[in-house]
Amino acid sequence: MDHAASTKRDVLELMLLDESVEPTDLPLSLLEDITNNFSADKEIGRGGFAVVYKGMIRSGTIAVKKLSHTYMHEKKFHQEIECMMKVKHKNIVRFLGYCANTQGKMESFNGKLVMADVQQRLLCFEYVAKGSLRDQITDASSGLEWRQRYEIIKGICIGLNYLHRNRIVHSDLKPANILLDYDIVPKIADFGLSRCFDEKQSWAITSNIWGSLGYLPPEIHSGIITFKSDIYSLGVIIKEILTGQKVSPEDYDVIESWRDRLETSSQLEQLRVCFEIGTECTDYDPRRRPDAKQIVDRLVKAESMDRFTETDVVVQQAEMTSSGLQQGTPKILRRGNFGSKDAKSGELEHYI
Predict the structure, then answer these.
(1) pLDDT tens digits for 129-162?
(2) Domain assignment present for 343
(3) What does the CA dihedral 141, 146, 151, 152 come to, rounded to 10 degrees?
């Protein structure tokens, strides 16, 4: 590795220690070195456009995304860099740098040796250890607790609101493109299909339909891309987090499915709010879908109810202690079968 690559390694090391350091260009020789020349044992993911490798440096681990068929996807490479250079947010995977390398190489063509340009296009990101949300999707009977799922939903919505405020349409939101860190904080990733809109631009037309089946909005078949396209995909994801399925049967009772795992009446209300948001986001008419800020406001309001309930319980416990009542007296008791149809909407009562 030459001196220039060694210097860039130092910059990359610093990036993992200091989040204020801006993304930079990175030499191919450095990325080859930290991935053991893109060896199979370093591979951590593979998709239609790229292979992702784990890169090891002294201060930690990074993710190195190597694009496939670079001649076909040069525009996607430029779009992803353009969008990622604009963003820095806890719910967006952190962009560290890029490599655009082109070298002449003698290749055989029609029985003759010709000099061909061999392109290498790579992107580097923070390594998010917990994998993708896709691996955590289950129905209500198992898997992540409600509080974790709610925080994931809220984090995705906050991240998407940040993107939309910065005039970025992601265009490929799905659980596989949402990464989770050790604290289950969601981070939106994979901006290969994203669009950066001008200040006054609110829509675009495309003749190429890219994305993932099940998450594409109906209007995409007319070639229309708007911020509400992302909202539709978000709605599908929210429903999937709640039910384990992209599309649930019409008679599916989400409240009933969660009745044995919710702890407070405020969590029941949060569940209702999330399901309502998911339903509104997947409305066929984009004009009837809420925008990202409206969604975040509703989630924050629902969350504040949960905090109020917890504070209320603590106050009650303190009052009980000062009154000489047994500290172990239960504060919140189930009335009937929580969430069942004979339990008056599964409400919880507080008893002193």
Answers:
(1) 899 999 999 999 999 999 999 999 999 999 999 9
(2) no
(3) 10
